[in-house]
Amino acid sequence: MKTKGTIGTRLLFVLVLILLAPNPTEAQVKRISILTASTGGVWYIMGSGIAKVINIHVGGVEATSEVTGGGLENIRLLSRGKADFIFTTDAQILSILKTAEDRKKSDFRALFTGIASAFQVVVKEDSPIQSIGDLKGKRIGTPSLNDGGEIMARAVLEIYGLSYKDAKTVKHLSLGELANAFKDGFFDASLYGGGVPMSSVVDVTLAKKCRLISIEEDKLQTLLEKYPEYTRSVISKGTYKGMEKDVLSFGTRTAVVTLGSTSEDLVYQITKAVMENIPELAAVHPAGQSYNIQETLLGIRTIPIHPGAIRYYKEKGIWEKRPKGVLEAW
Questions:
Q1: What DSSP element (H or E) covers 18?
Q2: CA distance 172 to 186
Q3: In terms of Cα–Cα distance, which of 305, 310, 302, 309 is closest to 93?
Q4: How confident is the model at residue 98 (pLDDT cuts 50, 70, 90)?
Q5: What is the pTM of this model?
């Protein structure tokens, strides 16, 4: 005969098992991270936008945009399995994975590109600086070391026969810190690299009367020949307050990258969600328009495209029309 105590103990045991059991809905959710860069930059803003699109349009996935030190840190974290998806560029991939053999070993695969970035040099309106060559002996601020914009800064200074040693002072700061320091008069020039318009540059041009410095045509051609991972860029007049003429520069497109081992179906669903919901990305930031299917394979020639993304592009009939140099496999 079962006693009340025995029955009560069993009921309590069953209740504990029920409470400890995972929620079926929660168990089915796949959480993924998207590593971007510091707050105040377009990468973090667009990473949040892409995460939102994924959360709305890809069932069973919860995406989160995460702040990092930028593309190079993202590459290292992805290499160590500490991330699912990252923002980076061809230039940054080449700066770490210098040979084709290095890149093969990495197992990196790209989904798509967007955020057409541009190198941007900001000076006060009354500054004597008229050319990048005039930065010699000046106080310079750049993004954090090995940030995409900082790598651009080194590249363009080299073309002008300069290096950081030729400056009076050089400080490497987060984008928000860089903007604040420029407004407070600590720099003669702030050097940026990012999607246009950059919120940090908008910030300083609203606070101070500023100009952007163009790169001379002959210097630009020399840079593009030496660094084919970069492309010609024009920042249109009116992009920032007080900007009365176009500014000639160079830039990159930002790639969203994962590992070859990432689920083909997941990558397919994410690629489809992003490519088919551009208005939602554009509502987050104007750079969202750059994620259109006609340009999505521009600016990524260092690593192959992920099979899941290729599947989507083949369905849409653009894979066979892809730009020269875009890889399907090694």
A1: helix 4-20
A2: 12
A3: 302
A4: confident
A5: 0.74
